[in-house]
Specification:
Radius of gyration: 33 Å
Strand content: under 5%
Oligomer: single chain
Largest sheet: none
């Protein structure tokens, strides 16, 4: 009994405890070593997707329709009120009775080649016509009636008067000067305009077309007659080639408008879409230039203030408050100047806000706070220092940064107040925006999709 047992024990290995292997180690040993994924995986796809979205937005929509409308309304209202206030003094400012006479203006314009139709003739009747046309163009742009025509006429009126007497302006006039040029390239009549109201009430968008055609034909004939009479300055003198200058630019605008009407009337579809893309790109580029211009204004103003000794010691505000020309309310100015702490806070606060504002555009909350402070500052300048038109021009330029939600809310409240209707009741032309799929433009009668320019 024992031998077989011993034999079996000799042939079999000695019994002992089985080796213990950790589960994690076993799994690791059974798998092939993994490769660390590259952080650049999918980067090309993501970049392509982002670029596609950006291109669709830039080419398919006009960014900031409400912001451009507010800039249009604010700048045109500022210039219109200025022309009306200075109507009794128009001859001394820009006319034949001014200190800066026609001969001096001609010599200066011969050097800087500035554009002004007032140099076409030194007659009083021509001046009255230009001044009245400038008032009419301002009213047209303010109401948004034939906005493309109005923006061009508004620019001509602003440049003609300001370039006639360059020493009569201030910082506010410079802002109006620049914005008048930029507005020509924007689609600033998409909302809050008579044009938008007409399109909303029209089934095919063709109502009132004869009026627009008549205006552009009249402008073309007027420009042609002026050129034939040699009033436009389109000559070979001073080394200028005939295709350079403001007159070719005006002809180009007229031809583009004619091409727009022809395509819109007789070639809908892809040609119309192509022109819409071109118009959207031009509008968005102009809005970007306006944003950059406002940032440049504040940045340069703030950094120049930093270099001044009176701004460094916090007493800069004290001195203009004691100037008679800048004290429409002497009691208010003297009361403000009597507080040293208030003078120092406003002086330093102005510099801080102006220098910091361009750096806050990527933080919406901080940007909105500084924007509100700057608007309050300009309103205070209008009241305390007696510079209403400068303040209006700057506030209108600042409106390019206002949030779309706030603008739509303010427009809705003002519309209800104007209609005096019950709350929650709107007109038929205030329908929500429904962009046409794949087209990048809205249906006739619908407002453009709200896109916030602020970031």
């Amino acid at each position: 009994m024992t031998e077989p047992l011993n034999a079996s024990n000799d042939s079999a290995p000695a019994a002992g405890p089985a080796p213990v292997v950790a589960p994690a180690a076993a799994a690791a040993a059974s798998k092939v070593p993994s490769v660390v994924p590259s952080p650049f995986t999918g980067l090309a796809t993501a970049a392509d997707r982002s670029l596609t979205r950006a291109l669709v937005r830039v080419t398919g929509t006009a960014i900031g329709p409400y912001q451009s409308a507010v800039v249009r309304i604010g700048i045109s209202l500022t210039w219109l009120l200025f022309l009306l206030r200075e109507f009794p003094h128009r001859h001394e400012l820009y006319g034949p009775d001014g200190v800066w006479g026609f001969g001096l203006a001609s010599r200066l314009i011969a050097d800087n080649h500035a554009f002004t139709v007032l140099m076409w003739s030194d007659g009083g009747l021509w001046f009255e016509f230009v001044y009245a046309a400038a008032i009419g163009a301002s009213a047209m742009l303010l109401l948004g009636w034939r906005t493309r025509t109005a923006s061009l006429l508004f620019m001509v009126g602003v440049l003609s008067l300001q370039n006639r007497s360059v020493f009569m302006g201030d910082g506010g006039d410079n802002v109006v000067h620049l914005m008048a040029i930029y507005l020509v390239f924007t689609r600033c009549g998409q909302v809050w305009s008579l044009d938008a109201r007409r399109r909303a009430r029209s089934r095919d968008g063709q109502d009132g077309e004869a009026t627009g055609i008549a205006l552009w034909v009249a402008l073309g004939l007027f420009l042609l007659v002026a050129q034939l009479l040699g009033r436009t300055g389109l000559t070979w003198t001073d080394g200028m080639l005939p295709w350079l200058g403001w007159t070719p630019f005006l002809w180009g605008v007229l031809l583009l408008q004619a091409a727009w009407w022809v395509v819109r009337r007789y070639a809908p579809g892809e040609p119309r879409t192509l022109l819409d893309v071109f118009a959207n790109i031009t509008h968005n580029a102009a809005m970007l230039v306006i944003v950059a211009e406002v940032c440049l204004i504040y940045a340069t103003a703030g950094w120049y203030k930093i270099q001044g000794s009176r701004w460094q010691d916090g007493t800069a505000l004290y001195y203009p408050l004691h100037l008679e020309d800048f004290s429409p309310w002497p009691e208010l100015s003297h009361a403000l100047a009597s507080s040293g702490l208030m003078v120092m806070v406003i002086t330093y606060g102005t510099v801080i806000v102006q220098v910091a504002f361009p750096f806050t555009l990527f933080n919406r909350r901080v940007k909105n706070v500084l924007l509100a402070l700057m608007i309050v500052e300009h309103a205070s300048i209008a009241l305390v220092l007696g510079l209403p038109f400068f303040s209006m021009a700057m506030i209108a330029a600042d409106a390019v940064f206002l949030p779309t939600g706030f603008l739509r809310w303010a427009g809705d409240r003002l519309g209800r107040l104007a209609r005096r209707g019950p709350a929650g009741r709107g007109d038929a032309d205030e329908r929500p925006v429904v962009p046409r799929p794949g087209r990048g433009r809205a249906e006739p009668g619908a407002e453009p999709a709200p896109t916030d320019l602020s970031v």
